[in-house]
Amino acid sequence: MHELAIAQSIADAVTTRAIACKASRVKNVRLKVGEASGVVTDSLAFCFEMLASFDPLLEGARLVIDTVPHRARCRHCELEFAIADFVAQCPTCGEWSTEIVSGSELQILDMEIENP
Amino acid sequence: MPKVTIAQNILAVNDTVAQEIQQMLATRGIRTINVMSSPGAGKTTLLERTIERLRGELGIGVIEGDVETTADAERIEAAGAETVQINTRGACHLEAHMIRDALAQLELTRVNLLFIENIGNLVCPAAWNLGEDTRVVLTSTTEGDDKPAKYPHMFAASQVMVVNKLDLLPYVDYDLAKARRQALAINPRLRIFEVSCRTGAGLDEWCAWLTAFVHGDSNTVCKQSYSSAATARGT
After folding, report:
1. Judging by DSSP bridges, how do beta strands B191-194 and B160-164 pair with one another?
2. Contact A106 B11 (CB under 8 A)
3. Chain B: residue whose CA lies nearest to A1
4. How far is A46 from chain B (nearest CA, A)?
5. How far apart are CA A71 and CA A82, in angstroms?
6. Residue whose C-alpha is closest to residue A81's, from A97, A105, A98
7. What is the pLDDT along chain B (235 residues), one digit of tens a residue?
């Protein structure tokens, strides 16, 4: 999978922001990751911690991941429902015309830092 | 401990480069297709057959992605298209910056249809925007009819599905109706073509669709939307 590349993107974004804030150390980094984003959160955390261990600014930093469920809204009966296995068919009226409400998120929310 | 808000899409850097590529290609009137599949489904063969059929009417360019070797670029060049090879040396997908660098080496003056042949992989390439107008997922009868259900992310992220190796249907346990049903359950708007690159079956329909796509026929426009992708990712 591509978790290492994604972990590197997170490390880069966090480092840029930490330097701008004159931080001496980054602690927890909070992410929002959708169920349907294609990202394996355990692997992502493992890759990030490995990358962080090479950098004094990030050493010991941890990812705190909020998982967002894959959900859709039926355009016909307006029911909002959980999507299983990417099949977004309305469970009550059988309608295929649905709007994806959440699940593709891949966002860095915030981080805790230490200042010198 | 102080908390600092970041509120940034994790793939923001890739998406920004992809958007720049899409704008540059649009300015030049070039339509771009990202072709993805598992290894051995027939991406290069589909492009060879397509180039042979359309080279008289369209200017075709190809960015070839492979982990190693220039074998595929040589095949594409022999078929008559402008080609640049990217070797990722291990990476399992193409990223937008690789496309930006490859485009700098490609003679684009006569190109109006650009194919990006991604690394053979049904998982990772789905997550990376490359600046394409549309995404084609290629699958084949020898891989089994359960690919859409097993790799839903790829089929959800594509606009077109091509099923290759139709000529082998009598010899393999592949249920075409089941594959279609599964793919459409994941992505009801998926446009499906069934072809055999070996016999040429179905290639007329595929090439007619490509020609209309290049000429901007609204029925073929199934554009990758970067703004909506960004919204969905929470930026």
Report:
1. parallel
2. yes
3. B124
4. 17
5. 4
6. A98
7. 889 999 999 998 899 999 999 999 999 999 999 999 999 999 999 999 999 999 999 999 999 999 999 999 999 999 999 999 999 988 889 999 999 999 999 999 999 999 999 999 999 899 899 999 999 999 999 999 999 999 999 999 999 999 999 999 999 999 999 999 999 999 999 999 999 999 999 999 999 999 999 998 755 655 544 433 444 443 3
| pTM metric for this prediction | 0.89
**A32 in reach of chain B (CB within 8 A):** yes
Beta strand ranges found along chain B (DSSP E):
3-9, 31-37, 60-66, 82-87, 113-117, 134-140, 160-164, 191-194
- Cβ contacts below 8 Å, chain A against chain B, sum to 108
Q: Is residue B223 part of a domain?
A: no
Domain boundaries, chain A: 3-69+102-114
Give the gap in angstroms from C-alpha A95 to the nearest C-alpha of chain B. Answer: 11
- Is B3 close to A85, i.e. CB distance below 8 A? no
Range of B71's domain? 12-218
B172 has a chain A CB within 8 A of its CB: no
Percent of the residues in chain B that have a pLDDT greater than 90, as a whole number:
85
Q: Residue A1's pLDDT is what?
A: 56
Q: How far is C-alpha B151 from the chain's CA centre?
A: 16
Residue B17's domain is classified under what CATH number?
Answer: 3.40.50.300
- Examine residue B3 and state whether it is found in any structural domain, yes or no: no
Q: What is the pLDDT of residue B184?
A: 95
Q: Does A12 touch chain B (CB under 8 A)?
A: yes
Looking at beta carbons, which residues of chain A come within 8 Å of B128?
2
CATH second-level architecture of A3-69+102-114?
2-Layer Sandwich (3.30)
Note whether B6 contacts A100, CB cutoff 8 Å.
Answer: no
A51-90 confidence digits (pLDDT tens): 999 999 999 999 999 999 999 999 999 999 999 999 999 9
Total structural domains in chain B? Answer: 1
* A24: chain B residues, CB-CB within 8 Å: none
DSSP string, A13-67: HHHHHHHHTT-SEEEEEEEEEETTS---HHHHHHHHHHHHTT-TTTTT-EEEEEE
Q: Is residue B7 within 8 angstroms of chain A, CB to CB? A: yes
